[in-house]
Write a structure and sequence with these properties.
4 helices; two-stranded antiparallel sheet; mainly alpha
């Protein structure tokens, strides 16, 4: 079985969002994070307040960094929002390093959720 590079896998991630969510050809990380957060929240398409959007991005980041040991799922609150505990502090990263980490985390999420074809 051929092992795909991170760049090949990232192209598949982008293609998934273009096909399933009609995003631009190279969706921004924030767009992908938002859609993953909505998926994790299970709330579907609706109008969100600015605070809701920030919470949804936070949910996505916590969920994506959970397999890397930075966060651990704690519980769902009465509104159905998942809560995470910080397990390990993220290292100080430059913006390009943050983007690389998030791309790796998104690829891992796709593997874990079996979203690659």
């Amino acid at each position: 079985m051929e092992t795909k590079s991170d760049s090949q896998l990232w192209e598949e991630v982008e293609a998934f969002f273009v096909t399933n969510f009609d995003t631009e050809k190279h969706p921004q990380i924030d767009t992908i994070l938002f859609l993953i957060g909505v998926q994790e929240l299970g709330s579907g398409q609706q109008k969100y307040t600015k605070d809701d959007k920030l919470n949804i991005l936070h949910i996505a980041v916590c969920r994506l960094l959970e397999p890397f040991g930075y966060y651990k799922f704690s519980h769902y609150d009465d509104d159905g929002y998942p809560h995470f505990e910080e397990v390990d502090q993220l290292p100080e990263l430059k913006p390009n390093e943050q983007q690389i980490l998030m791309k790796k985390a998104i690829i891992q999420y796709f593997m874990d959720e079996e979203l690659f074809k």
